[in-house]
Structures are given as structure tokens and as C-alpha cells.
Write a structure and sequence with these properties.
Growth Hormone, Chain: A; mainly alpha; 17 helices
Length: 431
């Protein structure tokens, strides 16, 4: 283990860092995916035709705010060595806004939207901050493994929060309570688990960075423009970033709308939806673990193409499913593809990005994913509104993103892109 960590980093500090993945995963699993999304559409918004659009629009606003402020917040954190201070702020902000969702009663649409935007903004910003600690903890050759351990612990954290919510819902339903009674309490459960599980991170993780006065908000935006200007010299990476926006738009739509689709099309109640997401989380973990070996054997482009074919098949199965059985099959196929495609995409960026500029281009990849997080769910929301709440048609329309991503992927050659990345590194080294 010592060979994987930077000098002075102890195992318990690595555990404390990974615990943040455990802590914050409950928010996305319970609030965004499994419980509150369907409750928002069916109960808070009263199942009106534009309810799904309102949900996706609120999330899109929060993602847009993350995109706009991330370079500025990162610059401030670098200039003042303030990642830890900001992580405290974003954690308390997300926990507080999640707890505020307790008051999202039927008809309390403005409060629910405001709390959703604030909580998801703080979640996304905190996600960026905790990732910035990784190079301080792991040696360069171990970044992937250490990151993977945090990712795996995150799946466990999501399952813990979801399991606790499921246990409470089962207890509440046994006493005759309805969704308006027990869903708000699950928001308090999720907020409490987030806060408690994040304490090891907030108390034990050290800020090792030194202040860098030259990192200013102006420099941050200049760096973003500088990175975008480099893409013309790296055509395969540029094409893959476009491919990422497309297929990630489909993935983010599935993640954000899964519970809504299950409740609106197959009339899943909250308990059934939670069980579905629990199972899919396990499937996703297995997909991410197993597919890494397949990817190394068949190549990155083929591996991503295979997952996109799987996503297209999933959309068609869920669209055509006459009953719950075929939908369960589609959902588990989505889980396998989700774990595999997320892992494969990150590895592809690592392959195509210039070795001396990994952080720079991974940052651009992160912006591409955030853009997809706006485009995909918002497309689904608009489609469901325009089709008068026809969620099958909305899913089919959103599935076009996977087809478009597969078409763009066909023009990418990993070997050519890797050679271009090395040429770029040599050129900048002698500039």
C-alpha cells in the first residue's frame, strides 16, 4: 500500500478520502434516482403534463451553475489552498438543502425546485473538490486504482442510504402511511447519513496544497480557452469529447428519469422502485469490474461501441416492454452498460489525452459530462411534455443520443489519437 500513496499519506487518510464517495452517493441514489424524483412528479407537482420537464429543468439549472462556477471555485481553492474549507461549505450546503426537501409537501413546488437546485449544485461542486485531493494522496501510477476504490465504496454508500430508506418505508407502509408521509422522512435519513459519513473526510483529510496567488478566476477561464484551442491538434480526442456529450446525455437521462419512468409507465410504488435501483446498483458494480478486463482485451473503441449497442438495446426493451418482467431485464442491462461505459469512457480519455496534460483534458472531459447532464434529462423532459406525458415516446426520443454517439465513435482511431497525444507533448515541451 505504501508504494501506492504519496509520501506522508497514511492508510486512514486514504480511507477518510474514500468515505466521501460513500457519503455523497446516497444523495444521487435516493434524491436524484430512486425516491424523490418520482415523488416530485407524482405528488409535489400533482402529475401535471409538465411535471417531468420541471424536474429536468431544475436539474439542468443546477448543472449549468456548476459548469459556470467550477473554474472560478477551482481557481480560488488553488490560490488560497482552500479545498478543505470549500468542501465543508458544499457538504453542509447539500446536507441542509436535502433536509429542506422534508418540507416539499404536495403543491410546494417552488420550495422543492429551489431546494433541489441548491442541493444538486452543492453536490456537484463538492464532487469536483474531493476529486482534486486525489493527486495529493496517490502516486501517479496508482491514480486509477485509488480512484476505483472510492468509486466502489460509493456504490456501497448508495446502497446503505437506499437500504435505510427502504427499511423506513416498509415500516411506514405497514402503519398505513402514504408517500406524502414517508418520502419526506427519507430526505432526513439521506441528509443524516451524508453528514455522518462525511465526518471522517472533513476531520481527517489534510490540505497539502500550498497557496498559489497566480491562480485567479481570470487565469482559470484563460486556461479553459487554452484547452479548447488545443483540440484542433488532437482530432480523435476532440471527436471523442463530442461522442461523450452525446452518449452521456443518454446515460444521464436514464439515471435521472429511471424512477419516474418506472412509476409512470409500470406504476411502481416507492418500495418497488427502491428495490429496482438496489439491484441495478449491484449490476452496475459488476459491470464496471468485469468489463475492465474485456476492454483491455478488445480495445477501447470497440468496448465503448459494445456498451452503446447495449444501451440502444436497453432503450428498445424498455420502450416495448409489455410488463414488468421485460422492464426488469432492460433495467439490469442498463446497470451493466452504465458501469461498463462510465469506466471505459474515463479510460479512453486517459489514452487520448497528452501525457503531460492529463489534468487539463480530464477537466474538459468533466465539462463535457456536465453539458450532457443538462442536454439528456432536459430532452426527455421536453419530449414528455410535448407528447402529453407519453414516457415511452420520451425514452425513445432520448435514445437517439446513443445512436448518434455510436455514429461519431466510428470515426475514432485510438492508435492514431495516441500518437497525436505524444506528438503534442513533444511539441509543447520544446515550445
Amino acid at each position: 500500500m505504501a508504494k501506492l500513496l504519496q509520501p506522508g499519506v497514511r492508510k486512514r487518510e486514504l480511507w477518510a478520502w474514500a468515505m466521501y464517495d460513500f457519503a455523497n452517493s446516497g444523495y444521487t441514489t435516493v434524491v436524484i434516482t430512486a425516491v424523490f424524483s418520482a415523488y416530485f412528479v407524482g405528488v409535489v407537482a400533482g402529475n401535471v403534463a409538465w411535471a417531468t420537464f420541471a424536474w429536468t429543468l431544475a436539474l439542468s439549472v443546477s448543472y449549468a451553475l456548476v459548469m459556470l462556477t467550477a473554474p472560478l471555485i477551482g481557481a480560488w481553492a488553488d490560490a488560497h489552498a482552500g479545498k478543505k474549507k470549500l468542501l465543508w461549505l458544499t457538504t453542509l450546503g447539500c446536507v441542509g438543502a436535502t433536509a429542506l426537501l422534508y418540507f416539499a409537501a404536495p403543491g410546494a413546488l417552488a420550495l422543492a425546485i429551489a431546494a433541489l437546485i441548491v442541493s444538486n449544485y452543492f453536490f456537484g461542486t463538492g464532487e469536483n473538490l474531493i476529486a482534486a485531493f486525489l493527486p495529493e494522496l496517490a502516486r501517479p501510477r496508482a491514480l486509477g486504482r485509488i480512484s476505483g476504490w472510492g468509486w466502489a465504496l460509493g456504490y456501497v454508500g448508495g446502497l446503505v442510504s437506499l437500504g435505510a430508506s427502504l427499511a423506513y418505508i416498509g415500516w411506514a407502509q405497514g402503519r398505513g402511511q402514504g408517500a406524502a408521509d414517508f418520502v419526506p422522512v427519507t430526505m432526513l435519513i439521506t441528509a443524516a447519513i451524508f453528514l455522518l459519513a462525511s465526518l471522517p473526510t472533513l476531520l481527517m483529510l489534510r490540505e497539502r496544497a500550498a497557496p498559489q496567488p497566480n491562480h485567479t478566476p481570470r487565469n482559470a477561464w484563460r486556461q479553459v480557452r487554452h484547452t479548447l484551442g488545443h483540440l484542433s491538434q488532437l482530432p480523435d480526442l476532440k471527436r471523442f469529447l463530442l461522442c461523450t456529450v452525446l452518449y452521456q446525455a443518454g446515460i444521464q437521462a436514464v439515471i435521472t428519469l429511471a424512477a419516474i419512468y418506472a412509476s409512470q409507465v409500470f406504476h411502481f410504488d416507492t418500495q418497488q422502485t427502491i428495490v429496482l435501483v438496489l439491484v441495478v446498483n449491484v449490476t452496475a458494480a459488476l459491470g464496471a469490474f468485469a468489463f475492465g478486463h474485456v476492454q483491455d482485451r478488445i480495445g477501447h473503441v470497440r468496448a465503448i461501441a459494445l456498451t452503446l449497442v447495449g444501451w440502444i438495446a436497453m432503450v428498445l426493451l424498455a420502450w416495448a416492454a409489455p410488463d414488468e418482467r421485460m422492464f426488469w431485464l432492460a433495467a439490469n442491462l442498463a446497470g451493466l452498460c452504465m458501469g461498463a461505459s462510465q469506466s471505459a469512457g474515463r479510460a479512453m480519455v486517459g489514452l487520448l489525452a497528452p501525457p503531460a496534460h492529463q489534468a487539463e483534458f480530464f477537466g474538459l472531459w468533466g465539462l463535457a459530462v456536465k453539458l450532457a447532464s443538462i442536454a439528456g434529462p432536459l430532452t426527455y423532459g421536453v419530449a414528455s411534455w410535448l407528447t402529453a406525458g407519453d414516457h415511452r415516446q420520451a425514452l425513445l426520443i432520448t435514445g437517439v443520443y446513443f445512436v448518434a454517439g455510436l455514429a461519431v465513435l466510428r470515426g475514432i482511431r485510438a492508435d492514431r489519437g495516441r500518437r497525436a497525444a505524444h506528438r503534442f507533448t513533444l511539441q509543447t515541451a520544446h515550445a
